[in-house]
Amino acid sequence: MGNDHSVEVPNHCSMCGNRHLSAFKNLGDEDLDQLSEMKTCVSFKKGQVIMHEGARPQGVYCLHSGKVKLYKLGAEGKEQIIRFMTKGDLLGYRSLLSEETISGSVSAIDDTYACYIPKSSFFQVIQKNPKFTLNILEKACHELGEMGKIITSLAQKTVRERLAEILLILRATFGETEEGNLDISLTREEIANMVGTATESAIRLISELKEDSLIETKGRKIKILDATRLRKIANVFD
Amino acid sequence: MGNDHSVEVPNHCSMCGNRHLSAFKNLGDEDLDQLSEMKTCVSFKKGQVIMHEGARPQGVYCLHSGKVKLYKLGAEGKEQIIRFMTKGDLLGYRSLLSEETISGSVSAIDDTYACYIPKSSFFQVIQKNPKFTLNILEKACHELGEMGKIITSLAQKTVRERLAEILLILRATFGETEEGNLDISLTREEIANMVGTATESAIRLISELKEDSLIETKGRKIKILDATRLRKIANVFD
DNA sequence: CGATTAATTGATACTTCTCAAATCCTGTGG
DNA sequence: CCACAGGATTTGAGAAGTATCAATTAATCG
Questions:
Q1: Which of A136, A164, A198 is the last residue of a domain?
Q2: Residues in Cβ contact with A78 at an 8 Å cutoff, skipping those fewer than 6 apart
C-alpha cells in the first residue's frame, strides 16, 4: 500500500519528525521547500556501504532512521570505527566542506532510510542561510571535542577501561530496548573495532564483565546491569 | 625602542603576514578594521598556560608567532597532546561555537605572540560575514579528518609505528632548522604524550631509531636522517 | 656552580596479541 | 519450519609488546 518511499520518509522536510535534531532545525519555510524539492529518498540494507573512504561525495545524506557506522581502514586493512550516527545526523558534509576526499567509509548496521541532498542544493542553502552553516559548525565543534576524548582514551586507558566506556557510550547513543538490552546489535569484531583491540581480547573482557555481573549477554544482545560500577571501571567522571 | 607589542604583532590585521594562513584570509577591509579595533596583543612565555581545560573562554586567540600544544588530561592526570598549533591558527573557537567548556588546555611550548579577539567581536564578524564562518567550518572539517587518522593510529599501530609517524608529522608541521633538526624542542615526556605511551618506552624506541641511523639526536634536537625508511616503519602511505 | 629536573638503562611484571582449535549461532534454501 | 554451511564466538597457550619501578647519569636553569 502506498509507495515505498513515502512510507518511511516524509516527502517534505517540514513534516520530518527529526528536523529538530538535525542541522536543518531552524531553517525557514523557503529553505525547507528548496531542500524538499531537491532531495531524494534512499534506503540502505543492513551491511550496505553508503560512502567509500577516499571517494568524493556529490551530496550529503540526512539520516531519517536506522543506524550507521563511520570507520577507517588501518594500515593492515583492519576497520577502526570512529563513531556511529543515527537519525538527524548529517553525513558527508565534512568532505564537501573541506574539499577533501571522504576520510572514512560509512555503512549501515541496520536497515537505514535517509534523504540525499545534492551538493548544489546543500551549498545553495549554506550560501543563503548563515544560520545553517553555524548549525553545522556547532555540530562539527562538538564532534571535535568528542574525538579529543576518544584520542585520550585510546592513548591512556587499558582495553578493559575502554570496553566499559564504549558500552556506556552505546547506551547513551542508542538507548535500551524494553527488555533492557542495548538497542544496537554489533558483532564482537565490531565492538573490538571500536575499542581498538583484537576481537579475542574484546571477547575475553566481555566475559570478565559477565562474570562480575556488570553486564549480561545473549548472543549479540547486551544488557548493562550495573552502570555505576561500569563507570568506575571505565574511569569516567562526566 | 618602540613599545613591546607593535614590535611583534602589527596593529592592524590587514598588515599581518599570517592573514592568508588564517580563517581571516578573505575578510573585507571593514571586517578587518573592526577586528583590529577590538583585538588585543598578548604574549606568552614558554610553558605558560593559555587556556585551561574546563574553562569558558571569553574570546579567541589568533596565533601570530610561536608554538602551542593542545592537550587533555587523562584519568590519571597524564597529559595527552592532541595537536600543535602555530601561526595563523585560531584557538578557542570550538568552545565558543559549541557553547561547551574548553575541551583541552593550551600551553606555549615556545614564546608565543597572539591577538586576542573578544567573543562579541568574533560573533559580530561571524554574523556579518558568512564566508568567515565557512572558513572556520572548513578548518574544523579538515581537523575532524586529521583526528580520525590519529584515532586509527592509536587504536591499531604499535608504539614504534606511532613514534615514527609523529616524528614525520612534527617535520611536516614545524619544518627543519638550518642544521636539519626538527624546528621544535620537546621533552621526551612530551613526545611520549603525543605518541600515547610511557616516557621510558618513548626513550627506548628513540634509541632504537638512533641505532638504526634513522634519526640523530643531541639533547632535545632531533634530526631525521632517513624519512623514507621512517615512513616505512610508520606504515604511512600518504 | 649547585640543585633540580630530564634522560637513560635495567629488570621485572603485566597486558595484549596471535595462532589454533572447538563450539555456537545465524541466515539461507529446501 | 528445519537442517546445514559458513561465519561468529569462545577458550587456551604462548609470544610479543608495554608499563612500572628503581637506579644512574646527563642536562638545564637560576
A1: A136
A2: A193, B156
